[in-house]
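--- STAGE predict ---
source: upstream dedup step, 1 unique chain passed
mode: sequence only
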Amino acid sequence: MKKQILTLAMLSALVLSAHAQQPANQLLPYQNPNLSAEARANDLLSRLTLEEKTKLMMDASPAISRLGIPQFQWWNEALHGVARNGYATVFPITMHMASSWDDALLYQVFTAVSDEARAKAQVAKKSGNVKRYQSLSFWTPNVNIFRDPRWGRGQETYGEDPYLTTRMGLAVVNGLQGQSFDGKPLAAPGVPASDQSKAPQYVKTLACAKHFAVHSGPEWNRHVFNLENLPARDLWETYLPAFKSLVQDGHVAEVMCAYQRIDGAPCCSNAKFERQILREEWGFKGLITSDCGAVNDFYMPGYHGTAKTATEATAQAVNAGTDLECGSAYRTIPKAVKAGMINEDKVNQSLKRLLVARFKLGDFDKDETVAWTQIPENVIACKAHKDLAEKIAEEGIVLLQNRNQLLPLNRNQKIVVMGPNANDSIMLRGNYSGYPTSSTTILQGIRNYMKGAEVKYVPACTLTRNEVQESRFNLFREGMKATYWNNQEQKGEPVATDVMKTAINLSNGGNTVFAPGVNLTHFSARYEGVLTPDRDEDLTINMGIDDGCRLIVDGDTIVNMRECWGRVAPIIKPLSLKVGKPVKIQIDYTQREDVAVMQFDILKTSKPTSEQILAEVGDADAVVFVGGISPNLEGEQLEIEEPGFKGGDRTDLELPKAQRQVIAMLHQAGKRVVFVNCSGCAIAMVPETENAEAILQAWYPGERGGEAVAKVLFGEVNPSGKLPVTFYKSVNDLPDFLDYTMKNRTYRYFKGEPLFPFGYGLSYTSFEYGKPTLMQVKSRKRDGKAADYKLMFSLQNTGKREGTEVAQVYIKRMDDVDGPIKSLKAFKRVSLKAGERQMVSIDLPRKSFEGWDAQTNTIRVVPGTYQVFVGGSSADAAKTKIEVKVK
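--- STAGE serialize ---
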């Protein structure tokens, strides 16, 4: 036996040697761009050792020089712009963009995003060292259904409806992957039409549908949660449609499996979902990647517990069909193969899918062959993209209330701006964002629009406290220098440096590194800078730390905290500044394991009284209070806990008490209040509907959010946004957060009275719908059962100014007593001048009538009588309906 093994090893070495001696001017099959990606992948597979295959199945794939394989970083983010990779255009959060109900504009946005992505990847490639977040695989869009407004990551989704999520998700995928709006490959840029058939068809970037499947919080238990006995109807009719469409219609390149278990099996080792549904039923040909650290969850103590070791966890994931791991467990693939836990054929199947994807990108080919590489660097954060960010920000702002037509404001009014989000540029970005070259806060946007007229700003309170905190971080005139080491002792050469220009707020939540090249855990950092006071004042140093730190002020060690595991340790220290006496501050940070958090700011804190606030407001004609919550309170596995928040999720839906009190005080004093709410989720703003005459939902509106909000407030832009989620009156209206069934959730099943319904949004004009008619289009099949329909109705602008309405079409099967109250099946943006009437035509393919058939346990068109509704929201649509019998 030993002799046989030796012989095989010798043969393998001879084959590799022969490949290495290939003449330099003769292309090997995998190097030939004229061959198919599949043929090239098969050839390259035959040349790789098992150890090399293993390296290529991990998210940070190193170069393999002997075969000319370049390094590749699978983990990159582009949720609403290229993220975590330096300067880029920062578009509004996805929830904001979903409120535009404009998938054509969203397609333009992600065409711009992929332009910037290609340009940035080319810059990184030329540097000779491609770091994390710098390649061409982007783990977006998030097409999970936002089933519960308490979920902190709901801001990353496109709302609560499967159809709207599907439409928006397809626009993202097509824009990222360089496909046309309807999903077809685009002509290669710069290649004459006559030569298109000769040019290799390269994908622009790789998009990824996540998180598969049935994932929408809570954040705090996602590594241990087991979802059991979910009704098949909810699975197939609510949670899976967007994924299915992105796979079959959008040809999405990647699907990411989620953290939790379903019926006992972690999603990343769940053969039912990965093999049966994705591969066999839907015909998915792309690759499946794990969420970051998800495979480690199989065996980590206190987590899923489906495996005892990393090797066993790896075998479970690979055998189920997880092709790529973001994490460290897949290093044990050779060990698992040797132990017979994985057949190497399974490794080859997975790796082939990864190689095919890279060949389709042109990752192995010369730049002159791949036309996408010619996108110039000057597209990054260019004016056209910034204008696009402003355009979709304008379309996604939702006017929720406008009593007494307080809006639009005018420049002749005396306006005071208040609230904790008014002058916060970080809030504008949401989570998973890039870094804008410039941004405009809502305060700045209003001041710019007033063109020199005085606009007083009165903070009044913080997000959660009746106090005012002003950052003095700007007193670090040169910023703070950040230096990082991939050890805990700050020894040796640093792996990264940076300059912090704003308050430090870093964490490894979502497996995010502090800076490119820095470990997720077991690292250290030093932050150092000089405060240059411009006045005498008493301030506080505010820090949040997990794990350890030393705080040194002018050479004196003020804090020496060796470790803090399992929670963020708050540190508040007084600091007195004197003009002419600079203060040197140094922070030595140590991260040991698990959670990493580093927060630091210099703050001036005061507690204004109601009398002081009202005196500041004076005789203002209107108070614009910009409040809500922030990405620092809602997001992915956040460690900060405030009243109403837990681990990034919410425990109630109300506006924080401190803000409620200020708005109520203003109303009681007779002030006319415009409440601008910034959040990634629905807020139960019941008191605010009484205490504010006008309410705008501005979400987290991106780098140009200030301009967009100002244009809506002053009427240059007539709001047209519509809610992609239901705004409830209270958390008491909702089922338990851990209940994943759809009963009494979202507009499709909620039986109560919402505060603001799904699809709702006002305009500065008004619209009137005529009685609809439904016309059957000629059948495409002889049996007459595949007929399509065309819905026709008149729509009139009955107001005095031009505006855009989003006409929404809903359908219900009348004999489906357990089914949805109604389900969105089509929508169309219609722009009308004042007084204009237009006949609107909306196609309803036969598949619009698909739904759950309990008799066959399938999604299909069940013959019967259906109601078709049309209107300006899910509630208004109930007023205008028609019946149709579908065979």
